[in-house]
Amino acid sequence: MPDFIDQVVLHITAGDGGHGCASVHREKFKPLGGPDGGNGGRGGDVILEVDPSTATLLEYHRRPHRKAENGKQGMGANRDGANGGDVILSVPNGTVVKDSRTGEVLIDLVGAGTRYVIAKGGPGGLGNAALASTKRKAPGFALLGEPGDALDVVLELKSVADVALVGFPSAGKSSLIAAISAAKPKIADYPFTTLVPNLGVVSAGDTVFTVADVPGLIPGASEGKGLGHEFLRHVERCDMLVHVIDMATMEPGRDPISDYEAIEYELHAYGELEDRPRMVVLNKADVPDARELAEIVTPEFEAKGLKVFTISAATHEGLKEFIFAMGEWVAAARANKPVEEPTRLVIRPKQLGESGFAVRKVSDNQFQVTGEKPERWIRQTDFTNDEAVGYLADRLERLGIEQELVKAGATAGAEVIIGSMEDGYIFDWQPTLNAEAVRQGPRGTDNRLG
């Protein structure tokens, strides 16, 4: 199993809310103690938090299913249920969260300590003590807890490193990062040995910085060829680019200048990388004839305004000067870089005066009601308790659903679906336009919902 994982699908479920309790206070010599059922506890949230000490998504590759704790049920004597515990998932800095179905970017997590509630726990149901009113002094029911959010998200890591090593496959990037840091990447003499970025920590005097060995790029990488999009996204957040050029390649049609221009074309086509400072490293100087070729092409690179270093990752020739040059650039970039602020979450309140529901005619005498309030009330209702069903009918009537059904052409006995067509609640509607005209029958009966 790989040690570096930069993209995972995470299956997340928040905790369900605890059910409310229907209880009547019982005490000697107090036959009418009144309702004392407590509320259910809130379900736990699933929270993503940026942790600078986390560098990979490997943990979620191994355990992709995460669930928060459910809230506890309310109890008698006005005792509320305990809230479910939150689950906090640590992710690396620079993690992008996407909806797995639509691909929509939900949030880009940047900055240590940034938190995002990816799945919210369900609210607990109210106990009968909270439901008591002047008209309903001793409710014989309680509300159910609501289920927590459940969704699948894609976590995508864009490496946050100071320096990115870019170049053709087998240019010696992995050998170079192994030579200048304690990283131990897989090294072999065939293309695409590196399929995931290798991160190494490099010290240049008092400056400590990170270097990312980006998998090899080929012409067409900006269009996705050779997993180009997978590799190029790791370059986006690096402050500096180092071209590692193979001075010993024997492939026909390739030379140091054309290799540099080919990689530059792909970086430019990918976009948003034009402002990154560049440096050129002519690698494999220990190979015969490579040093002479390096001496020939160095003036051409310098004419482009590039700083050039001739090195050998195998013999460590020229590495000290190269490391300290990178350290100087990184120190200067950090001094001029603004302080990275945590991602700001924008909360947009709903517009006042919204009805909170919509009525749609599906077919002859069949109607669908959708909206946050009515669908939520359906989830809270215990349909095995007729009194709870009557309470739901009162709420729907006060919301104005009955009037909208009449406007849409519904008649007595119409089939009304609250929620989605696949799993919504279906009932036969009995109109009672005048609330005062509703005759209350025996406790636990109501003719408005069939």
Question: Please, could you describe this protein's structure?
Answer:
This protein has helices spanning 58-62, 128-131, 173-180, 228-232, 256-270, 290-303, 319-336, 372-380, 386-399, 401-407; strands spanning 7-13, 46-50, 65-67, 87-91, 95-99, 105-109, 115-119, 150-157, 163-166, 198-204, 207-213, 240-246, 278-283, 307-310, 358-363, 366-370, 415-418, 425-428. The strands form four sheets. Strands 10-11-9-12-13-14 form a six-stranded mixed β-sheet, with helices on both faces. A five-stranded mixed β-sheet has the order 3-1-8-5-6. By secondary structure, the protein is α/β, with parallel strands linked by helices. Strand 15 and strand 16 (366-370) form a beta hairpin. Residues 186-194, 221-229 and 434-440 have low confidence and may be disordered. This is GTPase Obg. GTP binds at residues 167-174, 192-196, 213-216, 283-286, 312-314.
Task: Please give a quick description of this structure.
This is GTPase Obg. By secondary structure, the chain is of the alpha/beta class.
Total strands? 18
Oligomeric state of this protein: single chain
Largest sheet: 6 strands, mixed
**Roughly what is the average pLDDT, rounded to an integer?**
82
Measured by DSSP, the beta-strand proportion falls in: 15-25%
Instruction: Please trace the helix and strand order, writing H or E for each element.
Output: EEHEEEEEHEEHEEHEHEHEHEEHHHEE
Number of helices: 10
Secondary-structure-based class equals alpha/beta
Structural shape: elongated
- Number of domain units: 3
Binding site for Mg(2+): 174, 194
Protein name: GTPase Obg
Subunit structure: Monomer.
Domain Obg: 2-160
